[in-house]
Specification:
Aldehyde Dehydrogenase, Chain A, domain 2; 5-stranded mixed β-sheet; alpha/beta; about 525 residues; Aldehyde Dehydrogenase, Chain A, domain 1; 14 helices; 7-stranded mixed β-sheet
């Protein structure tokens, strides 16, 4: 069998193919099982690459204003739009996603880039950001302090997850590049092809200065060792890997700024006043099914636990199961397929193992595995049918509030009071998002105040916004993405708030005249 070609890395301003004794790590089509490409970072001089990014890429980016860097983002958007068809083909082949699911990743990433291009354009010719108003240092107003934000003189290392090879890159890179900080991206190996191709198209278009955007595919060995005090690292993935990153000397001793997005047991909550024929009930049912099946449940924001009044448990189980029964699973190339595969056989094994764990504390309410796969061989394809589990006594459960199954799986839970629901939701120990379903604005407000401290985002779906709401699991660039506790304790996006991670705040204590001169090259940061 012919070995697939190695995808080149881009580092130190040039394309480099990994060396070494091995032929690289293969990437597979998770539905057909065929080998697509190989990746390797062996033999790369990481120290030279990181230094080139800091010195060449960083210096060139910082020489531009925010408005000029926003223009670079707009240029990237045009390149990516021109190559969308190729990206969709790669996503289907390497991630096993349907066209609709590929759009969440590909078009979502392009949309986020466009959003930050427009936000940056409004910052104009400034080269620094004013943070707050001036403050007198004493009785005489001539001597004051002004806090400012300036781009860090380092590199941004992104270690990303397998589920969003496009959006995961651009939602981080957009605010970093707008801030004037060069990016080195390490995509998850299993789905690295799309990330690598997008970077290649942008680099080949000569939009960014050399060193501003790099990609390293394959092993991550040695990447953290290159980080220096003014660098930043952002990681999306498992809590286990997050612990390794946090304990690395660069972070623990060198104070490298670190942002983590890890595991998350996101919840959906139904207003106890709802009835089976209420719109709030129907909205919850539809959203749960969508979150279980979009990208085969491989979203960090997907609904994992569903809390309903005990009286509605059976009705909710039947309604969700009826919709899941209409979900065809198999080869995403077939237009009748609604849900594609998981990204790999390894991920399939992990999901099946997780289901086995959860079933020790929950009953099976719906199991779609009885339906045949569409145009796919079950012995080859990494497909797992949607499964709804249920617990009538979730207060007695432990694993249901601890184990995240990263696939098309959710657990329905019966609650005896809203106070019990709040307590059980908080057992997740910090999540990215909780969605609330109610027609009562006062209930939504109370729920938001109760749950906000345990979540990065509270997404309220009421009948009046049913047609316009953006979805429980969709991360929009104007809203915060991240979560406390087990969700990683990090923050991304949130409009211009995202720029803060890539800037350093300092206080300038000077005369009013000096501060006037400083303000001439800066702009007030307004969220």
């Amino acid at each position: 069998m012919t070995t697939a070609a190695l995808l080149p890395n881009h580092l130190a301003g040039q394309w480099q193919t990994g060396t070494g004794t091995g032929a690289g790590t293969p990437l597979f089509d998770p539905v057909l099982g065929t080998e697509l490409a190989r990746v390797s970072s062996a033999g790369l001089d990481l120290a030279v690459g990181f230094d080139f990014a800091r010195q060449q890429g960083g210096r060139a980016l910082r020489a531009l204003s925010y408005g000029e860097r926003a223009g670079l983002l707009a240029g990237i958007v045009k390149v990516l739009q021109a190559n969308r068809d190729a990206y969709y083909e790669i996503a289907t082949a390497n991630s096993g996603t349907t066209v609709k699911d590929s759009a969440v990743d590909i078009d979502g990433g392009i949309f986020t880039l466009g959003y930050y291009a427009k936000q940056g354009e409004a910052l104009g010719s400034a080269r620094a950001l004013l943070d707050g108003e001036r403050i007198r240092m004493g009785k005489d107003p001539v001597f004051q302090t002004q806090h400012i934000l300036q781009p860090t003189h380092g590199v941004a290392l992104f270690i990303n997850a397998f589920n969003f090879p496009s959006w995961g890159l651009w939602e981080k890179a957009a605010p970093a590049l707008l801030s004037g900080v060069p990016v080195i991206i390490k995509p998850a190996t299993a789905t690295a092809w799309l990330t690598q191709r997008m970077v290649k198209d942008v680099v080949d278009a000569n939009i960014l200065p050399p060193g501003a955007l790099s990609v390293v595919c394959g092993s991550s060995a040695g990447l953290m060792d290159q980080l220096q005090p003014f660098d930043v690292v952002s990681f999306t993935g498992s809590a286990e890997t997050a612990r390794i990153i946090r304990s690395h000397p660069a972070v623990a001793s060198g104070s490298v700024r670190c942002n983590i997005e890890a595991d998350s047991l996101n919840s959906a909550l139904l207003d106890p006043a709802a009835t089976p024929d209420s719109e709030a009930f129907q909205l919850l049912v539809s959203e749960v099914v969508r979150e279980m099946t979009v990208k085969a449940g491989q979203k960090c924001t997907a609904i994992r636990r569903v809390f309903v009044p005990r009286a509605l448990f059976d009705a909710a189980a039947q309604a969700i199961g009826a919709k899941l029964a209409k979900t065809s699973v198999g080869n995403p190339r077939n237009e009748t397929v609604r849900m594609g595969s998981l990204v790999s056989q390894e991920q399939k094994a992990s999901v099946l193992e997780g289901i086995t764990q959860l079933r020790t504390e929950a009953e099976v309410l719906f199991d779609g595995s009885g339906a045949p796969l569409v145009d796919a061989d079950p012995a080859v394809a990494a497909c797992v049918a949607p499964m709804l589990l249920g617990s009538r006594e979730p207060a007695k459960a432990k694993l249901l509030h601890e184990v995240e199954v990263f696939g098309p799986v959710a657990t329905l839970m019966a609650c005896d009071s809203i106070e019990q629901a709040y307590e059980l939701i908080r057992r997740g120990e910090g999540s990215l998002v909780c969605s609330v379903y109610s027609a009562d604005p006062a209930f939504i407000a109370r729920a938001a105040l109760e749950l906000g401290s345990a979540h990065g985002r509270v997404h309220a779906i009421s009948p009046d916004v049913a047609a316009s709401q953006t979805g429980h699991g969709n991360v929009m660039p104007m809203s915060l993405h991240g979560g406390p506790g087990r969700a990683g304790g990090g923050e991304e996006l949130g409009g211009l708030r995202a720029l803060g991670f890539y800037h350093r705040r300092s206080a300038v204590q000077a005369s009013s005249a000096a501060l006037d001169a400083l303000a001439a090259s800066a702009v007030a940061l307004k969220y």
